[in-house]
């Protein structure tokens, strides 16, 4: 594949992501995406087999970038694993609380919409989410090992925290405030330091 073709595919994916994270998958038409990307409508199928495959690739691209950022956040730089985890959750609060930021959680945006619509997209979301939970698990275990986190089952706790944060993010969209995210932050600190959710 030529470099310019790769660049154009990536440009279409990035343009599509901005629309989909804002409006959802089903309500965004290809014409709208391609017009914004400055790509002739007829050339879409040169780059992608279908809108579904396009959506799957947007999800995979999102997780590649997200996981790379997560690796950077969780990289030990002298602070405890607990501090690295809490920094991650604080970034989550900051990102999801800003109505102007387009880096909203694609998992929250698309999970309910595409779970019954597209099996490949559902699996891409599930696989990406599982990789995030694995990174969180590893960081929790590092905290147990360095003594900054109480002795807990890292895998079970990572699942619990990720589910809680996704739920808080979804409720924040419904309530149009970040109260649930702030509550999730307090409960996360409590779970990691005293192994209690209250």
Report on this model:
The model has no long low-confidence stretch (mean pLDDT 90). The protein has 2 domains: 1-48, Homeodomain-like (Arc Repressor Mutant, subunit A, Orthogonal Bundle); 55-194, Tetracycline Repressor, domain 2 (Orthogonal Bundle). The chain has helices at 3-23, 30-37, 44-47, 51-74, 81-97, 106-114, 119-146, 154-175, 179-194. With 198 residues, the protein is mainly α. The chain has 9 helices and no strands.
Properties at a glance:
198 residues; Arc Repressor Mutant, subunit A; Tetracycline Repressor, domain 2; 2 domains; elongated
Task: Briefly characterize the structure.
The chain has 198 residues and is mainly alpha-helical.
Give the topology.
Blueprint lengths: L2 H21 L6 H8 L6 H4 L3 H24 L6 H17 L8 H9 L4 H28 L7 H22 L3 H16 L4
Helix pairs in contact: 1-2, 1-4, 4-7, 5-7, 5-9, 6-7, 7-8, 8-9
